[in-house]
Structures are given as C-alpha cells and as structure tokens.
Amino acid sequence: MSLPSGKWELKANKGELTISSVDAQGLVEGNINDQFLTGFWDDQARKLVFTSMKISALSTMQVYTGYALFYAIADVRFARLVGSVETISFTETGVQRDVDGWIAEKEIGIVR
Q1: How many helices (H) does the chain have, and how many strands (E)?
Q2: What is the pTM of this model?
Q3: Which domains are seen in the chain, by residue range?
Q4: Rounded Cα distance, 48 and 45, in Å
Q5: Interior CA angle at 87 toward 106 and 3, to 5°?
Q6: DSSP 74
Q7: What average pLDDT does the chain have?
Q8: Residue 44 above 80 pLDDT?
Q9: What distances in angstroms separate CA 15 from CA 1, 11, 39, 75, 95, one per listed residue?
Q10: What values do phi and psi take at 3, rounded to 5?
C-alpha cells in the first residue's frame, strides 16, 4: 500500500505532518510543523525516511525514520507511522545528538 498524502496528526510530539507528494520513484515532499521536509518512501518495506531543517544562527536538522501500519477500527481505516527521529544540533561548542520516538496517524477511509 502506498503512503497516503495529506495531513497526519503527530501524536508523540504534537503537531502536524503533511505529505504533499510521493512520486513514482518514492521521493516525498511536505512539511512537518511548518518546516519543509524531503525524503523517500519504500513501498515494499513500508518505510519512510525524511529530513527537515531549522535554519537559524545555529542550525538543527532532524532525520525521521518510520514504518507504516494499516488497520481498521470498526468501519474506519487508519494509517499509522511509527519510528525514531534523530535531532542533530550544531552549537557553538560542537554537535549535539538526541534520539526520540514519533508517531503520526491519519484516517484513510471507510471499510466497505
């Protein structure tokens, strides 16, 4: 199953993930909490990898890796992305790295 485009609700760190497009080669573009993202979707592995970057005096880059699960509750179908995010911050004293989990969910239709 391909990666559904549109708005996803971020559960772990609150906010919104928007998948604007996924092309035939798996190139993904969109936004996460109003920051541009670009990455790749592997349809066979159901794996999404993307990066977003906050540009300021000191830059922060985030690398997200997630796996898609598709399921239904009663008559409603959902897609869920579950994975990790590595935050890399370039500070005056060097590079700082943190790893956290993330979850995003989207309603994708009605079971017929």
Answers
A1: 0, 8
A2: 0.90
A3: 6-110 (2.40.128.30)
A4: 9
A5: 25
A6: T
A7: 92
A8: yes
A9: 25, 7, 19, 26, 26
A10: -75, 120
